Amino acid sequence: MPSPPKTLAIIGVGPKAIALAAKSAVLSKRGLMPPKLLLIEKSDIAAHWSGDYGYTDGSPTLGTPPDKDVGFPYRSEPAVWGKETASAINQDMLRFSWPAFLIARTSDRANYSDWIDRGRPGPDHGLWKEYLDWTLARAREELHPSLCEVSVNWEVRGLELAGEQWVLRDGAGT
Questions:
Q1: Fewer beta carbons within 10 angstroms: which end of the chain, N or C?
Q2: Residue among 47, 57, 33 at smallest CA distance from 136
Q3: What is the mean pLDDT of the chain?
Q4: Given the DSSP bridges, would you call strands 165-169 and 158-162 parallel, antiparallel or unpaired?
Q5: What 3-state class would DSSP assign to 166?
Q6: What are the distances in angstroms from CA 155 to CA 12, 26, 44, 132, 139?
Q7: Rounded CA gap, 18 and 37, in Å?
Q8: Where are the beta strands (DSSP E) in the chain?
Q9: What share of the chain has pLDDT > 90, as a percent?
């Protein structure tokens, strides 16, 4: 009987946390045991990309190419997974790619063919947030609910070790 998965708590649900959720969905689909994810965010998913939380107004252009999406660099290690499984994991991660997001969109604001025809321009921060939201929602659809818990409006104010477990505390001491 396999032991229950370890829990990985991630404070701040931005691109890296969302990339881990996508990778967990892929691993789980392949029958591999990802850690349980506890994603903790004090305001909103990918909050600082939206323009609502102070770092940007949502209109600046993304500073890196959007091809460097949540699956980048699409290089799972054959030494860890084996050559065939590593290749399959990389292929599966394409379901969460920037092009997959654009292809899935029905909006006139951005779609895959327009993106290609316009020379693959960088999206604005607000559209990047939409991509991140889409990616997390899709990953959560594929993951068993026990493998990905998202806590929004919860701010971690303390951390302590209790035996072999970390205990996270908010301002109210819970």
A1: N
A2: 47
A3: 91
A4: antiparallel
A5: strand
A6: 9, 29, 11, 21, 23
A7: 10
A8: 7-11, 36-41, 148-152, 158-162, 165-169
A9: 71
Angle made by CA atoms 138, 143, 146, in degrees to the nearest 5: 135
Angle subtended by helix axes 15-29 and 125-142, to nearest 10: 30
The per-residue pLDDT for 2 is: 62
The span from the CA of 157 to the CA of 150, in Å, is 17
Using the structure block, give the residue that is written with the tokens 């323009």: 51
Q: Do the beta carbons of residue 128 and residue 66 sit within 8 Å?
A: yes
**Count of all residues that appear for the chain in the document:** 174
Closest CA to 136 of 30, 4, 10: 10
Residue 1 has pLDDT above 60, yes or no: no
Q: 119 is written with which tokens?
A: 């020379």
DSSP string, 113-174: HHHHHTT-PPPBHHHHHHHHHHHHHHHHHHS-GGGEEEEES----EEEEETTEEEEE-TT--
Q: Is 162 helix (H, G, I), strand (E, B) or coil?
A: strand
